[in-house]
Amino acid sequence: MIQLINLLVGYKKPVAGPLDFEISDGECVMLFGPNGSGKSTLLKTLAGILPPLGGRFTAGGEVVLIPTHIPKVKGFTVREFIRTGLLARSNLFAKLDAEAETRVERAVETLDLAPLAEADLTQISDGEFQKACLATALTRKADVILLDEPTAFLDVDNRVMVLKTLQQIARSTGTSVLFSTHDIYDGEKYSDSSLKLSLKH
Fold it and tell me: Which CATH number characterizes residue 106's domain?
């Protein structure tokens, strides 16, 4: 669950807000608006990267932001990439314990990535890579998943596949999902509600 209360976001001056909005557990919400309306800024604020300029927000549990343009690193398998979500929280050279490995395998299964688990990242589609990025959030037991333009540069089939996956993840795990997009037509079909940002004048 995440709740915005008179929230103002921006850098030195507000670019969006005041915002009053609530995302319930298990809800998938589309964030949209023109370039410069503060979509990425809002996501970074909710992830704790930027401080609010006014108002406040509350988030229940672990919040994970999946940014756009994550590079595919040659030589990493899909399973190894998913493990990095947990390794980043400990020691890059440490071994994962049995419980963490179970979380990795559960995420692989939840996102139907088992057939691709040993494939090199550079050999999978961009849509499949987005699913792998989602899996890293699941290994961290995310209660809130934020995604910045997860369908950018995807073809139609992969775009729809990623959006369907986001909604399925929200409903099956109870995770709150907020994703930004310019693809309003498809985004609306696979979200439970939407939050629109407008340019400030």
Answer: 3.40.50.300
